[in-house]
Structure to design on (443 residues):
């Protein structure tokens, strides 16, 4: 008898274990071969882990087909939680005859400048923007467009990685130099690979040599998950984003549900804008995450990708409402999700707050048990432990995150003050004298 399972393409060991614990009888994983010996995966059944080179699509397909045959597995759907693995997931879906968002649309969504261009053509408001690969080009945009308050960002990264806010020429010069150096260091990163888009007259750019410079748009930020099905939008969740004041630009301090929208904005605007944004890229069905800013009472889409929201969002939503985002997504990809989805509105304000390391180096000691003594803390989720390395931007933007807390938000409390209180209950010691060693150093 065939063992039907959803194939999850990509993702990291911590997410594998998390998903496997939720649906041990429903999932299998195609993973980067670099994780083959990761001890975290000891908590998952090895029969449902297939390791391969995720950059070689044909080889990856042969690997997973052999794995299916060996263990009697039949793919019941394909899912993906990582932007860098979406194209591979789409490729496998096409070849296996399984539903997944369209490859061409994924490629367009992965290129933020192309997506922005298409959205503007579809009538969605977007800030002035241009591609740049030289300091002089970026300075010219800064000086001549009337947008002397600009944001620099990579074409294809995610989150706050290499995102800079510049208000002076001096800041532009400094940040462009960081951008040039940092992009060159990311040539082996799958997030920064060039994506070929067929039948497109839009320019092809190297993500490791080119960036976007765009007019800064002010306003509160939000994040949402939605499903596109039968030409309809089903909103799953919307969370308010609180930005971290002492971190790099664009870093998130907290997510909050339910969100508080600015006066004058109606969330009823969201479904039409999200539908136009998704369908203009060529999507016809799928589960999506979008980041947006409310500017002058209208939504400005910053990013859209055909996967669920990550970070602490699934835990936040499940704690606040009881709704399982990951489970709903897995049900959708194998046509077991019944629409419309009813997500309860939380009766209290709940937030997930990120805990950022205050110094880099080797973690010699980490203890967050004292956080549990705070009456409004509902759960603590650590991503680091003793022996791990903390690295700061621009080398790495994710590595500085120790973990996050889910809290029942105290009334009239400043989020930054809450984060400081939480960190005051974390005992972490880092050894800054620790030095990386490489095989060449040891030779």
């Amino acid at each position: 008898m065939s063992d039907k399972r959803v194939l999850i393409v990509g993702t990291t060991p911590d997410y594998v274990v998390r998903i496997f614990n939720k649906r041990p009888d429903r999932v299998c994983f195609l993973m980067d071969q670099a994780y083959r010996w990761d001890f975290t995966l000891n908590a998952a059944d090895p029969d449902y882990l297939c390791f391969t080179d995720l950059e070689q699509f044909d080889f990856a397909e042969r690997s997973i087909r052999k794995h299916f045959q060996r263990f009697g597995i039949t793919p019941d759907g394909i899912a993906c939680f990582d932007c860098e693995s979406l194209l591979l997931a789409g490729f496998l879906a096409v070849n296996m005859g399984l539903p997944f968002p369209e490859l061409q649309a994924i490629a367009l969504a992965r290129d933020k400048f192309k997506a922005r261009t298409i959205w503007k053509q579809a009538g969605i408001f977007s800030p002035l923007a241009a591609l740049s690969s030289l300091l002089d080009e970026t300075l010219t945009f800064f000086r001549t467009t009337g947008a002397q308050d600009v944001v620099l960002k990579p074409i294809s990264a995610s989150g706050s990685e290499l995102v800079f806010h510049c208000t002076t020429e001096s800041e532009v010069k400094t940040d462009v130099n960081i951008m040039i150096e940092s992009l060159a260091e990311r040539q082996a990163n799958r997030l920064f690979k060039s994506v070929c888009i067929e039948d497109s007259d839009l320019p092809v750019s190297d993500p490791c040599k080119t960036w976007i410079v765009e007019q800064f748009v002010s306003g509160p930020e939000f994040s949402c998950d939605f499903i596109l099905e039968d030409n309809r939008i089903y909103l799953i969740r919307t969370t308010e984003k609180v930005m971290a004041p002492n971190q790099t630009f664009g870093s998130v301090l907290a997510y909050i549900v339910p969100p508080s929208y600015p006066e004058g904005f109606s969330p009823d605007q969201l479904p039409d804008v999200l539908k136009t944004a998704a369908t203009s890229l060529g999507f016809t069905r799928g589960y999506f995450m979008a980041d947006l800013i409310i500017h002058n009472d209208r939504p400005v889409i910053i990013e859209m990708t055909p996967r669920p929201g990550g970070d602490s969002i699934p835990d936040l939503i499940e704690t606040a409402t009881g709704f399982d985002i990951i489970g709903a997504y897995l049900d959708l990809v194998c046509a077991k999700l019944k629409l419309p989805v009813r997500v309860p509105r939380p009766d209290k304000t709940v937030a997930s707050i990120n805990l950022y390391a205050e110094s880099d180096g080797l973690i010699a000691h980490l203890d967050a048990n004292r956080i549990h003594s705070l009456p409004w803390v509902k759960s603590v989720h650590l991503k680091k432990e003793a022996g791990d390395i903390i690295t700061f931007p621009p080398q790495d933007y994710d590595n500085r995150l120790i973990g996050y807390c889910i809290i029942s938000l105290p009334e009239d409390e400043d989020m930054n003050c809450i984060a400081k209180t939480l960190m005051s209950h974390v005992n972490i010691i880092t050894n800054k004298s620790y030095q990386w060693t490489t095989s060449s150093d040891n030779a």
Summary: The longest helix spans residues 169-184. Residues 437-443 have pLDDT under 50 and may be disordered. The radius of gyration is 22 Å. DSSP finds twelve helices and 19 strands in the chain.
